[in-house]
Write the structure tokens for this entry.
Amino acid sequence: MRGALCENRRKVKKNKSVDYAGTLDINLSGQVSYKDYRNLILGLSREGYRVSIGVVILVSGWVLALVYAMGNYDHESNKSHNHVFVLVFFPIMLIIILRRIIAALQQIKKDYQTNALLLGELNYRLTNDTIHIKGETVDSVQKWTRFYKIKETKSFFMFYQGEGIATLLDKKMFTDDELVDFRQFVGALNLKRV
């Protein structure tokens, strides 16, 4: 059974457009965790690249500073020559990069905490025609035809109805069979894949 399920998943992922003749009726519920949201935003945005590059620069700078300091150390006089880089430049660079990383993570956390849709548990009903999202602060029905593109990440399906405006479906809410069925359904939709 597991082998057939994996084979179906491979077929659905390979095919760009698949006919879906079934009846879609999937009920999901859950809440998007902060960790998953943070990872999604970092993976999609320039901030994620900045954080990654900042960490690489930070580690590289630290290693270079150590190598530089060790190479310019005079063992006979117990003094380091030309230690301006180690004492001035590297700490300034470190502070700038750390502030950018912290600011990016704080902004993502603020965005998460101020989005009522993400904070509460949501119930989803997926049918052939619509996606119905109901929660404490939302009761929305959207037709699949309102979306113009889809992006599938490791953890989410993202259905875009405008530039930068997406409906998220957390894959953790699906069972394995529901996920295979939903991928087949999505493959039959006339949506741009990104």
Remarks:
- The radius of gyration is 24 Å.
- The chain has six helices and ten strands.
- The longest helix spans residues 84-113.
- Strands lie at 25-30, 73-74, 79-80, 122-127, 130-135, 139-143, 149-152, 156-162, 165-170, 192-193.
